[in-house]
Amino acid sequence: MTRARILSAFLALSACAAPSGDYPSLLPRPIERISLAEPVRPVAVATPDAALDSRIAALTAAVATASGRFDTAVARARPAVRSGTGKAEGSEPWLGAQVALAGLDVARTGIDAPVADLERLAIDRAAAGQPPYPALDAALERATRTATAQRATIAALTAALR
Fold first, then answer.
1. Are 109 and 70 in contact (CB under 8 A)?
2. pLDDT-based confidence at residue 18 (cuts at 50, 70, 90)
3. What pLDDT was estimated at residue 16?
4. Local confidence band at 73 (pLDDT 50, 70, 90 cut-offs)
5. What is d(CA 34, CA 162) in angstroms, rounded to the nearest whole number?
6. Taking the model in full, what pTM does it have?
7. How far apart are CA 123 and CA 90, in angstroms?
8. Shortest CA distance to 61 belongs to which of 143, 147, 125?
9. Which end of the chain is more exposed for a tag (fewer CB within 10 A), N or C?
10. How many CA atoms lie within 13 A of 93 on its CB side?
11. Rounded to an integer, what distance in angstroms lies between the CA atom of residue 93 and that of residue 79?
């Protein structure tokens, strides 16, 4: 008898759960079948440009010249910074070291113009919708790395003076 009651209770409850109306299907709708993935686009390849190559070569030469001048200024400034290290502020060796560091700052600015010109070339290409130019990107990366190294050299010499 208990089995019969359980079965009848089950049937009664399942009858309450039966759908009484028209419900939508749980299958994916047409809008859900649309792919939202980014379409695959071919990568544009830069065509050789002789005028741009010559401009890059000129700016790379300017970076090398500025880097050489900075290296010469560093060679002159190191002894002055060494002699001013640990000396009282305002003393003759300390002032000489400050002047040498100021000279390094002036020598470092020589690289700013060619780096800015390389950046401008890259920005202009991007603004025009042209693909990246590998030679330009490499020259800009080298020039930026050189400028960063120069700033680090000045910072290290300034820290050694304090």
1. no
2. low
3. 56
4. very high
5. 65
6. 0.70
7. 46
8. 143
9. N
10. 13
11. 10
